[in-house]
TrEMBL record:
Binding-site positions, ATP: A55, A56, S57, D61, I87, G165, D170
Protein name, per record: Cytoplasmic tRNA 2-thiolation protein 1
Protein origin, superkingdom: Eukaryota
The keyword Transferase is assigned to this record: yes
Similarity comment: family membership: Belongs to the TtcA family. CTU1/NCS6/ATPBD3 subfamily.
GO cellular component, one term: cytosolic tRNA wobble base thiouridylase complex
Keywords annotated in UniProt: ATP-binding, Cytoplasm, Nucleotide-binding, RNA-binding, Transferase, tRNA processing, tRNA-binding
CDD domains, A to Z: CTU1-like
Function: Plays a central role in 2-thiolation of mcm(5)S(2)U at tRNA wobble positions of tRNA(Lys), tRNA(Glu) and tRNA(Gln). Directly binds tRNAs and probably acts by catalyzing adenylation of tRNAs, an intermediate required for 2-thiolation. It is unclear whether it acts as a sulfurtransferase that transfers sulfur from thiocarboxylated URM1 onto the uridine of tRNAs at wobble position.
EC number: 2.7.7.-
Pathway linked to the protein: tRNA modification; 5-methoxycarbonylmethyl-2-thiouridine-tRNA biosynthesis
Length: 338
């Protein structure tokens, strides 16, 4: 084995996927943690004496995020109160097991944990939703509901920030997907390290520039407990293609991940392009780019036996709903004729 390229005098144990540097374990840990600290301080992600909810799934990203945030908070005196926030989608054989891992994180890292379930928030588990709609659009329901559930949890906990475990590979994949879909609004938002959730609680991504392979390596060498089983309802086909493309390109040149992120950050949207503005859903009060948010439309469809409502154009959804609903007397009606 060659010597560690950080010149610490030890033998190198690994090759950093991001830079190709040959490092010993300790120098890798230091480089990995310092980069996240640099990301946090350069973007001024947190103000001192605030509370941060860490969106915790029990997977490698959120486990490493919780571990490293705690470590940096102690080391650099960020003065943050850290709490874990988990969403139980109600997926048997997946989320029930991964929540056990989150509970282990709670005990190991000594952080309070709040769990919110789809069943309590929406009246449906993902198992029930899939039984109703099948396996084609399940991730649309799950993603929309989870996003809002995290916002609800953050508001409930009265935190100042919601930190998510999105890593560099996730961001690059999302940039690729949004380019392929021509979705300018999302392209703009997905590159931001801080996004406004609409209710005044910013979402932040401390792992934005951290490679997935390095997160796995860090968790492995630190012996962190995380859950690695894939969701029984995966894959989300479209993201899966973007992921495969990125992984193939990363084999040729690992810098493609950073290059895509930097390209996404530098893209300027043409001023003539129509961009949806964020507002509050007139039904539930949470952030939405429409009068009624996607979560409320999807939920309405489920409750009215029209599960495809909300899959596709929202104007079509509204028309279908008005045609099919006795409305006006129905709780959660969308027709606005009350
Ligand atoms: Fe939800 Fe789809 Fe992810 Fe499973 S794969 S947790 S259904 S978004």
């Amino acid at each position: 084995m060659p010597q560690c390229s950080a010149k610490c005098g030890k033998n190198a144990m690994l090759k950093r996927p991001k830079t190709g540097d040959m490092l010993c374990k300790e120098c890798f840990f230091e480089a990995f943690e310092n980069e996240i600290h640099f990301t946090i301080t350069r973007a001024k992600l947190f103000k001192p004496n605030t509370t941060v909810a860490i969106a915790a799934s029990g997977g490698k990203d959120s486990t490493v995020l919780a571990y490293v945030l705690k470590l940096l908070n102690d080391k650099y005196k960020y003065q943050l109160d850290l709490v874990l926030l988990s969403i139980d989608e109600g997926i048997t054989g997946y989320r029930d097991d991964s929540l056990d891992t989150v509970k282990q994180n709670r005990d190991d890292y000594k952080m309070p944990l709040k769990i919110l379930s789809y069943k309590d928030l929406y009246g449906w588990t993902m198992d029930e939703i899939v039984a109703e709609i099948g396996r084609k659009n399940n991730c649309t329901f799950c993603g929309v509901f989870r996003r809002q559930a995290l916002d609800r949890g953050a508001a409930l906990l009265k935190v100042d920030y919601l930190a998510t475990g999105h890593n560099a590979d996730d961001i690059a994949e999302t940039i690729l997907m949004n380019i392929l879909r021509g979705d300018l609004a999302r392209l703009n938002r997905c590159t931001s390290i801080i996004t406004d959730s609409g209710d005044g609680i910013p979402r932040v991504k401390p792992l934005k520039y951290t490679y997935e392979k390095e997160i796995v390596m860090y968790a492995y060498f630190k012996k962190l407990v995380y859950f690695s089983t894939e969701c029984v309802f995966a894959p989300n086909a479209y993201r899966g293609h973007a992921r495969m493309l990125l992984k193939d390109m990363e084999k040729i040149d690992p810098s493609v991940i950073m290059n895509i992120i930097q390209s996404g950050e530098s893209l300027k949207v043409n001023e003539t392009a129509t961009m949806p503005s964020l507002t509050k859903c007139t039904r539930c009060g949470y952030v939405s780019s429409q009068e009624v948010c996607k979560a409320c439309i999807l939920l309405e469809g489920l409750n009215k036996g029209l599960p495809r409502l909300g899959i596709g154009k929202s104007s079509k959804a509204k028309r279908i709903l008005q045609e099919n609903s006795p409305c006006c007397k129905t709780q959660n009606c969308l027709c606005n004729n009350k």
